[in-house]
Amino acid sequence: MEPKEELSGVPGMLRPFKAYLKEVGLAPGDQVTYYGCPGTCTPFIELLGFAVRDLSLEQVYVPYVDETAAKAIRPVEGVGMQVSGDAVGLDPKVIVLMGGLAMPGVPVTKEAVQAVVGAHPGAKVVGVCFMQMFEKMGWLDAFAFEMVIDATLDPVRVWR
């Protein structure tokens, strides 16, 4: 899979994601399910969810690949989108795999993620990562990604 375009900043991550969800012909109420690491992936999932809040989709967060812990992502007025405490059933039309799952030391294997994806035949698979994590860990060939968004955080500048 070769990059088709190079964008920048937060809009460069969010606009293609929203455009993709519009293009695949999802119906109102269809489910987009994000799989990612608690804490580190969650803010990015909420940001992606905020970008598509007007598409009338059901959005769900699954910590790691523990589908029994699936939670609804809901709008919070004056805040944005947040993972709620509401448990939900799963019927993903789009699966979003976050790059944190591929990081070394994360308590989930590529094979476990493949098994979860395989349990939802027909769901489209999107990847969102940073710093070429899917490429570095061999995930680009391990999943049938329809789209991958790979953002870069270099340089990170700090003033004190």
Radius of gyration of CA atoms, rounded to a whole number: 15 Å
Mean pLDDT: 95
CATH topology: Rossmann fold
What class, by secondary structure content?
A: alpha/beta
Distance between the termini: 40 Å
Helix run count: 4
Q: How many structural domains can be distinguished in the coordinates?
A: 1
Pfam families: DUF2124
Organism: Methanoculleus formosensis
Protein name: DUF2124 domain-containing protein
Structure description:
It holds the Pfam family DUF2124. This is DUF2124 domain-containing protein. InterPro entries: UCP004962 (IPR009183). With 160 residues, the chain is α/β, with parallel strands linked by helices. The chain has a single domain, classed as Rossmann fold (3-Layer(aba) Sandwich). 24% of the residues lie in helices and 29% in strands. The protein is built from four helices and seven strands, in the order H-E-H-E-E-E-E-H-E-H-E. The protein has helices at residues 9-23, 42-51, 110-118, 133-136, and strands at residues 31-36, 58-63, 71-76, 80-87, 92-98, 124-130, 145-151. The protein has a seven-stranded mixed beta sheet, covered by helices on one side. A hairpin with a 7-residue loop joins strand 2 (58-63) and strand 3. It is globular. The protein starts with 8 loop residues before the first helix and ends in a 9-residue tail after the last strand. The model has no long low-confidence stretch (mean pLDDT 95).
